[in-house]
Amino acid sequence: MSVHKLRHHVVGAMLSLLVLTGCAEPSEQPAASPFTASTSGQPSTSPIPEIVVCRLDSLVAIEAYIDHNENGQREAWEDPLQVARFRVESPESDNEAFYVKSDATGQAGYQVLGDCLDSSGDYGIVYAEVPPDYRLTRPDHCSTGNCRFGFATLNVTPSSVREADLRGADLHGADLRGEDLGDADLTGANLREADLRGATLRNAQLTGADLQGADLSLADLRGADLRNAQMSGAVLSEANLSSADLSNADLQEADLSDADLTGTNLREANLRGATLRNLQLSGDNLQRAYLSGANLSRANLSNTQMSGAILVEANLRYADLSSAELSGADMSHAQLFEADLQGADLREVNLNDANQNSVNLSAANLTGADLGNAMLHKARYDRYTQWPEGFDPVAVGAVLEE
């Protein structure tokens, strides 16, 4: 039996409801009762409307609202559906699920692409799921051969596919593991505590989105716009954030261990208490970023722009800060044991009470730096190192290397 894999695209709301075409001749069937549609013709115990699709190059559409007065009729003042979820089941689809933001009338649609499956009855099913408070509008009845549906409207008019518009959508706690949301517009969306492990969000618009506590481990966020995003406590371990814009993002206590931040913009981002171990941050923009208490041990920060950054009590043990631009940064009480600061710009930096034991300060510029209570035991420097006026490195245990 030959089976074609369902290919999918999320689309916006549909405005027209058309009858099904392209399958067998219609046969009269009684109207489907709420929550009783099933592929076998037997009542279903699951409160999930389902649509059995024969012609897969089609649009599947639903419309729902909250029936506040419980009269079974849609009133103009009653709340339309905000977000629906379409779930595809077929021999090859592996229960793929996609969230779709509805339009102002409560309509949401899903594009199914492909050929009819084998006529033996092995058909793909599209489940349209809505929150329990919402009532689906009374559908037109349709039964054409093996193409039938219950308790949802069906629109099979071929349509062009466009990126998902999920601006302001409430996806709090949504299970979006492995979903493809590339180029989606999630501006201002609520994704708090959402499960986005392994999801594709490449070039997605996430400006001002709420991702607090979300799990984005192994997610593809290359080129994503995360300006002003709320991401405190988010898990981003092993995520790909290369060329993403995280300027002004709140990443307090976020876990970014082993993430790819190549070319990422972290200007003025709040990374207080964040975990950034082993990160590749070379050449990134961290100007005026807030990194107090952050764990940057063994991170590669070479050639990084970090002027004005706040690194109070940050863990920079064994970090590579060679040729980094740190002028005006606050590194008081920071742990810099065996860090590489060769050629770094440390002018006017506050290093009061910082642990700089065994650091490499060859060719570093510390003009005007605050080295009060400096711990520089076995710190290495050379004749090109520039110290604050009147400061004696030998007196605090630093070692001149020829």
What does this molecule look like?
By secondary structure, the chain is mostly beta strands. It is built from no helices and twelve strands. The strands form three sheets. Strands 5-4-7-2-10-9 form a six-stranded antiparallel beta sheet, with no helix packed on it. Strand 4 and strand 5 form a beta hairpin. The protein is elongated, with a radius of gyration of 29 Å. The protein starts with 6 loop residues before the first strand and ends with a strand. Mean pLDDT is 75; it is low at 1-57, 113-123 and 138-162.
Q: Would you tell me the overall average pLDDT?
A: 75
- How many helices in DSSP terms? 0
Structural class: mainly beta
Rg of Cα set:
29 Å
Strand content: 5-15%
Low-confidence stretches: 1-57, 113-123, 138-162
**Multimer state:** single chain
Write the layout of secondary structure elements.
Blueprint: E1 7-11, E2 50-53, E3 58-65, E4 83-89, E5 96-101, E6 107-113, E7 124-129, E8 135-136, E9 143-144, E10 147-149, E11 380-381, E12 399-400
Parallel strand pairs: 11-12
Antiparallel strand pairs: 1-6, 2-7, 2-10, 3-6, 3-8, 4-5, 4-7, 9-10
Brief summary:
By secondary structure, the protein is mostly beta strands. The protein contains no helices and twelve strands. Strand 9 and strand 10 (147-149) form a beta hairpin.
Features:
4-stranded antiparallel beta sheet; 12 strands; 6-stranded antiparallel beta sheet; 402 residues; elongated; mainly beta
